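Worked Example 4.2. Consider the chain below.
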Amino acid sequence: VAGVIVGVRLGVAEHLEENAQVFGFELDPEDLDEIELLLSRSRDLYQAIGDCGDEYRR
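Applying the procedure from the previous section yields the following structure tokens:
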């Protein structure tokens, strides 16, 4: 299992400029295709193993 948490620490002002830069990028069609490829693989995995806790409901 892997994941990424993207966010800011509210109330911490020392990185305001860097935090605002998150709104300054765009995904191109190639990026979106790569994301869709990964999502399709995760959907297949979800179909194979089920949702969190399904192993206890079988």
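Residues 26-57 form one domain. The first helix runs from residue 16 to 20. Compare this with Example 4.1 before moving on.
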